[in-house]
Amino acid sequence: DYHTYKAVSVKEAVSILKDTHIDLLISDLKMPGIDGFELIKFASEHYPLMQKLVITGYPSIQDSLAVIKSGVVEYLTKPFTKSELEAAVSQAFSSLDKKAEARSTADKPNAYGDIIGSSEKINAVIEIIERVKNNKATIFIKGESGTGKELVARSIHYQGKFSRAPFIAVNCGGIPENLLEAELFGYMKGAFTGADTSRAGFFQAADGGTLFLDEVSEIPINLKAKLLRCIHHTFLNNSPERVVTAMRHKTEIHPLSRLIFLCHEHTRQSHGKEQNCEKYNCNN
């Protein structure tokens, strides 16, 4: 079952190792010229995943400790029987299989989209994502800074059936208040000074996909009524459509966008804006 290579010296063995993939190296320790210790050391440095089996007619505790530190998995003392050699070779290949399995597991960490982990709490979050990823329900995410809230939002979108549609992320705290309404809902030509052409807002851009509103607690109070109307229309009519009116537009637009709101836990606690966040939470 095995293809073997024979070398009469360390130099020849090194040449074989350089030109051929070897799974198991069997070497004596006492050899003329360069001894087996040097071969084991070379193999450990250059081929750490290769299994190594040492045989010797001059056993000693010092030699045993030295080769074990070099990664040798089996150590046979002469004379040995054929069955003892077979058992040592089988043990070496068994260790090789375990290493390969461990590497495979390490190379493939438990990942769900960009979320990596396997703890009980991570699994609970993933279960929630699985329940909501394929519908247009409005979603509210809260938590402290650095806990991966946006990763959750992106996983909801990209792990679901709407992943080919747009995912529009908006940092509401980073847009000046006087521009936020126009950016969210769009505007018609002439709506304000400098509006030379009509422009679609983030709601229209996310049509068919997901509109992710970060720092929702920073939205000015006068825009909350518009946002709540979008949510109420979906909730009361059991419809994925949103009701959006662009600035200076006479008719309503009904984009099919899912809303995900995000609010930082420390913002809610330290700045007294809990009610601003909870409004969205209570209506979904």
In brief:
This is Response regulatory domain-containing protein. The protein is of the alpha/beta class and 284 residues long. Helix content is 44%, strand content 14%.
The CATH topology of the largest domain corresponds to Rossmann fold
Model regions low in confidence, pLDDT < 50 over at least 5 residues: 235-244, 267-284
Head-to-tail CA distance between termini: 64 Å
Radius of gyration from the CA trace? 33 Å
Helix and strand content put the structural class at alpha/beta
Shape: rod-shaped
Approximate strand percentage: 5-15%
Q: CATH superfamily of the largest domain, please?
A: P-loop containing nucleotide triphosphate hydrolases
The main sheet orders its strands as: 6-9-8-7
What's the helix-strand series?
HEHEHEHEEHEHEHHEHEHH
Let me know the largest β-sheet: 4 strands, parallel
Count up the helices: 11
CATH architectural grouping of the largest domain: 3-Layer(aba) Sandwich
What portion of residues is helical?
A: 40-55%
What's the number of extended β-strand segments? 9
CATH class of the largest domain: Alpha Beta
Q: What is the averaged pLDDT score?
A: 75
Number of domains: 2
Give a verbal description of the structure.
It comes from marine sediment metagenome. GO terms for molecular function: ATP binding. InterPro entries: AAA+_ATPase, CheY-like_superfamily, P-loop_NTPase, Sig_transdc_resp-reg_receiver, Sigma_54_int, Sigma_54_int_dom_ATP-bd_1, Sigma_54_int_dom_ATP-bd_2. It holds the Pfam family Response_reg. This is Response regulatory domain-containing protein. It is a single chain. By secondary structure, this protein is α/β, with parallel strands linked by helices. It folds into two domains: 98 residues, 3-Layer(aba) Sandwich (Rossmann fold); 172 residues, Rossmann fold. Helix content is 44%, strand content 14%. The protein contains eleven helices and nine strands. The strands form three sheets. The protein has a four-stranded parallel sheet with strand order 6-9-8-7, with helices on both faces. Helix 9 links the parallel strand 8 and strand 9. The longest helix has 26 residues. The two termini are 64 Å apart.
